[in-house]
Structure formats: structure tokens, C-alpha cells
Backbone:
């Protein structure tokens, strides 16, 4: 089963403008499938395979000569020195879209690419499916939301009909632990599992390294290193606080969210979709769902938006602020299905502070409503509106 990806438009566009297009993103996000589908006329080689990697490392010129005229090279970060030789080839040939490169380590890949292919490559981030790519309006009903949160969006769960619990367990052991072990010698994996669970239990909360370190029994430096690896591997996302003072944005504590809500739900203890009803932090998991979807859609459509949360001096928060460069849009997120005036009290506080007549946007599980001073949207309507216009209008269109 191939699902059409929003990023196809961007990938095709860049392949007509640049000699190299580099696609990065978490493992199992569909990078290889997307490239093979969109560039079926190109040869394909994976550097994850030892013989290919050995060939590329020991005879880079011979290796590239095997794939002249256009190639998809998977997991390019496994042989970063190859990028210097690719630079020489594209400078000689000047062929648009000659190389399509993929990689799943943000730090290793972006550093190597910026050094060797500056000005020669376009960068695209590809994340797991977005909601609008795999669900339709027929499935947009209250009883579906727990199924969505439980399954998450990793492509193989949907294309191969995998059990989400089994898939998430395997993903942690096969990919996340391996990525961390590449950088740090973890002597006790049970402690690392505990760390992952603590991060998931704190989704939507201010990141406190000391508290997590104390609960894990390791140093603050260790937790900072592990957080960094998870971020570079596209497992977690740090949402920074909003401030008109740029320096303060960098100083105040961020919040953490998981790029895939299914992984977050699994680490919170959901082994079946029914378990979500019993989780005390279901509201935070729903908040993770909304924010991660917006972040993915922003990347896939190249909206170039910035995201923050707002917190005033007495702790009143707005869950998400979208900054499109010209305007900022506050969004409050609630898992409830019935509108409650308490849902928007923080939006009122934000509007008063910013001297705005429009309260902003409420995204929840209930039905969308038409209001003059507030956009009240079901999450499905919100996703469709955001993916369609990217908040480039004064507000998200009401359906």
C-alpha cells in the first residue's frame, strides 16, 4: 500500500532545482518508499548493507561510477566521506536531481551535508504519516480518537497491519536504543527504558533535567545527552516558550513532545486502545497529538513556521503559538468533546495581554462551532485547514 505524501510536491520541486536533494527524518518514516515511488527511473542503493558500505568507503569513485545518471542513496550518513566525492560529480555534471540522498541521523547528516554540499542540495524533513494522509472524514468521530492515538503514524503499522504494541516495542529496541548506543555506552538498558517512560509521562510539561535525573539515578549531564540524542534522532521535539525577547526564549525551560503520538501512548502504558481511557495524562497525550501533527505538516509543506508555547508570570499557559513571520496565532488544545467556557480562559488572558480582539483558536474532540471572537475546531477540521493554507491567512478557515 502506497500512501500519497504531502512532501511529494516539495521533493519533486527541489529535484528540478538542485543537483542533490537530501531527505532526513526518523527511521521508518517512509523515506525509502517515497523516493522509490517518486523516482522509479533511478537506481537504488542502501549503505545500511555492509557490502555497499564497504565499497563506498574503500572505492568511492568506483562506487559512484556504478550509479552515474541518477541514484537514490539510502542512509548516506553511514559513509559521510562519500559526500565530498558527490560534490565533485555534481560540479562536473550539473544535472538537476542527479542524487537523492536519505538519512536518519539529523546531527551526523546535516553537519556533513552543510560542509560538503552547501549550495548544491535542498533539505527536506520527512516524518511519519500525518493525520490527513491516512484518515478521512468518515473516521472522524469521537470513538476513533483513541484508536488514532494508540496506533500512531509510523507507516508500517498502517501499510502492513502491524500490532501497534509489538511495533513500538520493536522500534525502541531496534532503532532508538541503537542510536543512543552509537554515542553513549549504556550499561543498564532498564534505566534507559525508565528514562523514556519518564519523558513520555512528562509530555506537555516543562523539561526539568534534574527531576528526571533524580528519578533515573543518573547525572544531569547524562539526561541532557540522552535528550539530545532523542532530539537528533527525531524521537522527541522541544517546544520553546514564547517571548518578545529572543534571549529569554533561549533561557526559559522548553516542553518536550514526541514526534509520534503512538510511541508516546505506548511509553505511557497503552497496550490496547482501551487503555487510553484510564491514563491520567490523556489530555497531555492529545495535546502531543495536535502539536506533533502541526510540526509534521509544517515540515512536509515547507510553511517555515515557528512554534512556541506561552506562559505568563503566574503560570497561565496557551498550549501552542504559531508564528508565520507576520502574525502569531494562539491555540488552546483540549481532549474534551463538549465545549466548556473554562477551555478558553487562558486564551482570554493571552488576548488581553496582546491587546487582541480575537481570542484565538480552540482545538478539541467535539464538533466545530461558528463563533465571532473565537475559532472552535474539531481536530480533523483543524488539520485539514492547516494543511491547506498553513495559517497564511488571518486565521484558519472555518469549515
Residues:
Amino acid at each position: 500500500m502506497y500512501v500519497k505524501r504531502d512532501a511529494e510536491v516539495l521533493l519533486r520541486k527541489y529535484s528540478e532545482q538542485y543537483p542533490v536533494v537530501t531527505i532526513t527524518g526518523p527511521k521508518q518514516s517512509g523515506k525509502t518508499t517515497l523516493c522509490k515511488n517518486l523516482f522509479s527511473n533511478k537506481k537504488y542503493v542502501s549503505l545500511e548493507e555492509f557490502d555497499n558500505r564497504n565499497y563506498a568507503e574503500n572505492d568511492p569513485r568506483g562506487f559512484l561510477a556504478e550509479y552515474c545518471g541518477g541514484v537514490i542513496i539510502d542512509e548516506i550518513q553511514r559513509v559521510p566521506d562519500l559526500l565530498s566525492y558527490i560534490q565533485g560529480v555534481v560540479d562536473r555534471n550539473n544535472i538537476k536531481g542527479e542524487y537523492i540522498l536519505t538519512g536518519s541521523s539529523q546531527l551526523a547528516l546535516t553537519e556533513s551535508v552543510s560542509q560538503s554540499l552547501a549550495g548544491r542540495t535542498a533539505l527536506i524533513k520527512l516524518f511519519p504519516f500525518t493525520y490527513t494522509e491516512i484518515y478521512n472524514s468518515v473516521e472522524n468521530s469521537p470513538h476513533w480518537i483513541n484508536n488514532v492515538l494508540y496506533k500512531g503514524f509510523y507507516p508500517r503499522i498502517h501499510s502492513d497491519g502491524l500490532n501497534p504494541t509489538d511495533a513500538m516495542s520493536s522500534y525502541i529496541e531496534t532503532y532508538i536504543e541503537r542510536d543512543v548506543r552509537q554515542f553513549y555506552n549504556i550499561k543498564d538498558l532498564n534505566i534507559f527504558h525508565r528514562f523514556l517512560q519518564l519523558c513520555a509521562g512528562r509530555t506537555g510539561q516543562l523539561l526539568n533535567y534534574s527531576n528526571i535525573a533524580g528519578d533515573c539515578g543518573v547525572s544531569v549531564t547524562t539526561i541532557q545527552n540522552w535528550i539530545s540524542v532523542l532530539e537528533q534522532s527525531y524521537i522527541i521535539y522541544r517546544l520553546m516558550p514564547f517571548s518578545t525577547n529572543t534571549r529569554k526564549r533561549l533561557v526559559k525551560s522548553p516542553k518536550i513532545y514526541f514526534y509520534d503520538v503512538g510511541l508516546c501512548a505506548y511509553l505511557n502504558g497503552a497496550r490496547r486502545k482501551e487503555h487510553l481511557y484510564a491514563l491520567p495524562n490523556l489530555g497531555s497525550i492529545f495535546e502531543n497529538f495536535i502539536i506533533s501533527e502541526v510540526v509534521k505538516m509544517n515540515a512536509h509543506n515547507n510553511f517555515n513556521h515557528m512554534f512556541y508555547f506561552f506562559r505568563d508570570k503566574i503560570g497561565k499557559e496557551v498550549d501552542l503559538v504559531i508564528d508565520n513571520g507576520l502574525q502569531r496565532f494562539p491555540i488552546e488544545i483540549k481532549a474534551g468533546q463538549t465545549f466548556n467556557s473554562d477551555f478558553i480562559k487562558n486564551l482570554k488572558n493571552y488576548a488581553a495581554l496582546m491587546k487582541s480582539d480575537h481570542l484565538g483558536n480552540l482545538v478539541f474532540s467535539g464538533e466545530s462551532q461558528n463563533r465571532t471572537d473565537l475559532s472552535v475546531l474539531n481536530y480533523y477540521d483543524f488539520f485539514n485547514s492547516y494543511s491547506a493554507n498553513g495559517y497564511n491567512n488571518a486565521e484558519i478557515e472555518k469549515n
Confidence is low (pLDDT under 50) at residues 393-399. The chain is about 45% helix and 15% strand. The two ends are 30 Å apart (CA to CA). Residues 298-389 form one domain.
